[in-house]
Each structure stands twice: as structure tokens, then as C-alpha cells.
Amino acid sequence: MSVTTVSTTPIEGQKPGTSGLRKKTKVFMEGNYLANYVQSVFNTLHELKVPVDKGTLVVSGDGRYWNSEAIQIIIKMAFANGVGRVWCGTKGLLSTPATSAVIRVRGSGCEPFGGFICSASHNPGGIDNDFGIKYNCENGGPAPEKMTDLMVEWTSKITEYKTCDKMPEIDLSAPARYDLGEGKFIEVFDSVEDHLAVLQKCFDFKQIKRLIAREDFSLVYDSMNGVQGPYALKMIEQELGAKKGSCTNAEPKEDFGGPSSPWHGHADPNLTYAVELVARMGLNKQGDKIDTDQKPPTFGAAADGDADRNMILGSQFFVSPSDSLAMIVANAKLIPQFKAELKGCARSMPTSGAVDRVAEKLGIQCFEVPTGWKFFGNLMDSGTKYFPDKPTYTPFICGEESFGTGADHVREKDGMWAVLAWLQILAAKTESEGKLVTPEDVAMAHWKEFGRNYYARYDYEDVDKKKAEAMMESMASKAGTLAGTKYRDMTLAKNDVFEYNDPVDGSVSKNQGIRFIFEDGSRIIFRLSGTGVAGATIRLYLEKYEPPDGNLVQHQFHVVKPLAEVALEISDLAKHTGCSEPTVIT
User: Fold this and answer.
1) Would strands 85-89 and 508-509 be described as parallel, antiparallel, or unpaired?
2) Distance in angstroms (rounded) separating the CA atoms of residues 153 and 374
3) Which three-class secondary structure string do you get for 322-380?
4) Is the pLDDT reported for residue 318 higher than 70?
């Protein structure tokens, strides 16, 4: 294959956020935008002596608009940069957790040196919406900061990129092998098989199948026209025997359903956007019960565009992501993956402290990390060949309030894993108690034992970035100075800017959010999101703890509303940004 070297110049703004580089689709389609970034990644890998030459690379995506074209560009550049083999999922599709599974287990295991994932996760797809790309390493997890920092450095000094521009387009529609000569080839494989194989080792599919076969049990799994569709159909309907039609919106679409869909193409599994599922489960977007024409299913779940996120629902009952994490950890012994032991758990800093209380009772370590799955990855790799002198924390469960949950079977959050974890818990409890156990039953039992962390997140989207940063800087300047200040009937215990000292690789991550922690344990957190493509998103997190003997059945949004009023007073958010109401409440 002949290699062409193309002259180029740096393009500003190619700094990835917490989940890769995301921009408007048309930006990626312009000129050398994608090529510059991909070449900068290869330059970084060569500089770090990653075994790219004759190595194996995974390339796939979530199926959003321009996914197929981007994959063809990356394949041509991969071979031009010395790659020997490229693995692609059928139709260019791989969910983000499945990509991690492929890197870790396909073939002889850990064969690839890494992989490119073309995804902007839960962001809308389409020519007028968003596109993204991120690089995952040989452990199946996102590139660490030291690597992404070097990638950014390369984007600022790039002068050329390499491609095999004479190479024909590759047909990705079905499993096949394309030999290119000199021992180089492209393998197109079934997108589901590796992820399914990994999950079958984590769970007792036979026990879950017995639950699903019960006449008094029903479920619905909404893939929101994202990449999860083929996985849901194969695992939930075919392997576990759910009735045909249990998996809804299971056809992946370039625009995730687009403006005409009930969620307007925004495949984000929360109460605001997953409106079709939420209504079917007998709730509105505030989480209030509503009348339905038919009895709601026993269990409901939804996935986002790239299938790493999940939402869990019972009949007229919403399980918050923070509670979901805590409840899975509390019931881990019911999941075969953790029957021997569960050694550790972790949450992102903005996630509620519900799991902390569980970990304390179980006597296991619980870590508080910045937002970004790569921080969990370090903890999961501690004690392995990557960090052999560090303690081992696996088997391990982790999660974040933004509807991401997972474990150490892969190095990404895994929406399907979370759904199967809940089904496993319900199946085991149903069999042991001799009657159907629902998500609400699990939640009520949990709160009566551990208390309830009432929790909500307010998102203020598309805020002027400079105004948002000015607000954050104003609060940060007061760090450590407000302890003892009274706000309504609450006294502030401390206010700080969260900084994380990684116990595994020794790295320090600063400016990871602003915290206001009160004497009664209530928390107010402010953070600027790193997953948007336009303007800034201010995230406001609110948490108030209620002990086991307190009122456990209040509406979470009502309980934290007084905290929200205090937060707006502390931050002067309306004055700084002009925003009067949040865009989304979850």
C-alpha cells in the first residue's frame, strides 16, 4: 500500500474533554479536522513507544451521522502509520463498553494496542448536531491525562498527516476479512459477540431468564435508536427470552430518531429526554406518578447513544443513578461476578454519598474521584501489570450521577451491565423471598437500612462560557473562607475546590468542582461540564441526607429545592449568567 504524506497546519480547539473530542459534525467534516486529530494521536503513540507498528487497532463508533465516513478515514490513516490489523464491528458499530470488551478479550485477549471510538455519547447526532472521537488504550479504558495532554501538544504543532488514500472503501456491512498484503488485514466481526461473552461470565443468565419468564413480570428496554439496539435484541430478547417488542427503538439511526422522535434525537436516558419510556412506566419528567392506559411494566431501562449510560425504573418508580450505584454495591453478593468478594467501590465527586454508607458497613474501600471514567480505570488497574506495586481493589464497582455505572469487567461505564445487575438482583431476591420483588421493593429496603440521600442535578445548558467561568472563579476565590456561615437553617462546614491526588499513578487533578458542605451533611456542588460542544453547561448538584428513621418517601426534587435556593444565593448564578431556570433537572 502506498502512503501519501499530506501537508497541514494546526487547528485551534482540538483539546478533548472528559470523554474525548466533541464538536459539531460539520466541524469534523471540514478540511483536515479529523485527520489532524487522528495523526496527532498516532504521533503521541509513537512518541510514547506504544506498539503501533504491525499492531492491532479497533475502530468503530455509535452509528451517528458521518460515523461510516470517519471510520474509513481512520482505517486509511492507521495503515499509513504502520498498523498491521484493524478490527471493526459490523456496520461500523460498537458500543463504548463493547469496544472496551473487544480490546480486552477478543482473540487471545489484549491483542490491540488501543482503539478509536467515534462517538459523542448522549449528545444528539446528525449533520447539524454533534460528532466526537476518543482514543482508548490497551487496557480498554480512556487515554489518561498525560496521554491526552501530549495529543493536544501535537495538535498545536502538526505539519503533516499520513494516509493510504488509494486504498478502496471497505464494506463493513457483514463479518468478513480483507487481506491487504504484507500480512496486513481488516477484520469485520459481529458487534455483539464479545460483549455478550464477557457479560455471561458476570451474571447467571439462567436465573435472570426465570425471572423474565414469570407471568407477573414484564420489562421494557428503550435503546432510543442508539447503538444499544442490536445488543438489547440479542441479550434481552434472544438470550434471556423477553417477549418480542420488549426492546423498543432498537434500530440504530444516524440521528438517534431525529427531531420527529419523542426525545428529538437526544438519546440521553433521563427523565427529561427518555419521555416515551418514562410515560410508559407511569411517570412524568418530574418523576411524579401519572395515569396510564395500560399497567406499567415491572422493570424499565434506557440507554444513551453509545450505550455506556443507563436509567433504571420500576412501575411508577424512578431509581436515581446515585441510589442505583449504592443498591448494586449493597446487593453485590447476589451477582456471580462478586460472589467471592467485593474489594472496593468508587463514585465521582458530584455523585451522592449513598454508596459511602454502604461501603462503610461492608468494610470495603470507597473512593471519591473527579468526573471521568479514566479515574476509575486507574483504581481498577491498581495491582495489575500496569501498577504492580500498588494495592488491588478489584473486584470493583463504580458509578457516577450522570447515569453511568460499571465494574472491572471492562474499563468503561456499561449500560447493559447495569441493567443486568438489576435484573440479577431482582431475580435472586424473587427466588429467595418466594414472591416477585420489584425495584421499588429493593429501594425501600435499602433506605430503611442505610437512610436516603435525596439528590438532584440542575443543568444550565448553552451558557456563555466566559460568564460561566467568571461565576466559578468568584466562588473559587472564597474557598476556605465561609465555614460557619449560616444559610437559612443550615451552617456551612466547609467550602473548597475539589482536588484529587490519584493514589495509583500519583497524578494531581485540580479544579474539579466547587463544594459547599454543610454541618448536617448536605452538599451543594458546582461544576462546568466537559461533554458539551457549544457554550458551557453549568451543573449544580444538590444532596440532603435523611436517616433510616426519617421520612423516606418524599419527592427528591421537592426535598432539595431549598438547597437549590441557597445555591443560587451563594453563586449569584442569575446575575452572572442571566439564567432564571435550569434547562434540565434529573
Assistant:
1) unpaired
2) 20
3) HHHHHHHHHCHHHCHHHCCCCCEEEEECCCCCHHHHHHHHHCCEEEEECCCHHHHHHHH
4) yes
40 is catalytic: no
Q: Cα–Cα distance between 331 and 424 in angstroms, integer?
A: 10
Q: Which three cell numbers mark 321?
A: 443513578
Contact 103, 121 (CB under 8 A): no
The Cα 406–Cα 421 span in angstroms is 9
Angle between helices 415-433 and 193-202 (to 10 degrees): 30
Residues 171-189: tens digit of each pLDDT? 999 999 999 999 999 999 9
Residues 6 or more apart whose CB falls under 8 angstroms from that of 433 comprise: none
Q: Which amino acid is at 253?
A: K
Nearest-angstrom CA–CA distance, 433 and 435: 6
Tell me, rounded to whole angstroms, the distance of Cα 71 from its chain centroid.
Answer: 22
pLDDT value at 200 more than 80: yes
pLDDT by residue (tens digit) across 526-536?
999 855 566 88
The closest alpha carbon to 37, from 126, 132, 130, 165, belongs to: 132
> For residue 30, how many other CB atoms are within 10 A of its CB?
12
Residue 18, pLDDT above cutoff 80: no
pLDDT tens track for 550-565: 999 999 999 999 999 9
Contact 222, 274 (CB under 8 A): yes
Catalytic residue among 121, 315, 320, 571: 121
What's the pLDDT band for 269 if we cut at 50, 70, 90?
very high
